[in-house]
Amino acid sequence: MEKTIKGPHQGQPILTAGGPFNRARVAMVMVHGRGASAESILTLADEFDQPGFAYLAPQAAGGTWYPNRFLAPTASNEPWLSSALTAVEQAVAKVVAAGISHERVIILGFSQGACLALEYAARNARRYGGVVGLSGGLIGADDEPRHDSGNFAGTPIFLGCSEVDFHIPQERVQHAAEILRGLGGNVTMRLYPNMDHTVNQDEIEFVRNMMAALAETRQA
Question: Quick check: pTM over 0.85?
């Protein structure tokens, strides 16, 4: 992926919360959903309640990362998609530049942000502290070939979604789990019956435990 791209999302702010970078040992990059904001996704930090984490959330221009559904052909969401992937990359690079390694960074997204977070991770697979997709799947049409690279090397990955989510067919969550496992991810998928398009307490607790386990590991 081109790191120097200048698209609609470049120049947008990256908001922060939690501990300062120069003292944090672990970090989470949080990607908001369609029509939402960096400020809104950062409210999950209070739910996770994990001291020692630094949180970053890039902001989408106009509150939307790409115009069409994640099920649409990838080309129909350009140039916004490439710009959005670069925005996530820039947030991750900001963390790494502060001295927090990729292995101690969790990438999390909700809804459209989950699709973007998972797509970024699949295209740039490596050992991360974790990857979390809350109500999301990989981006592209059903029959579209993928161009993923790298290996997650056992990175813990969590996918949570309703079985009847209007926006996210459960088959696409299962598809994402298959692809991410094939890239070496340690994937946990949970599909919840009759859940709305939201984040539930079980998901929060799973992510909280993922964060706590990462915080307990020693810095390489």
Answer: yes
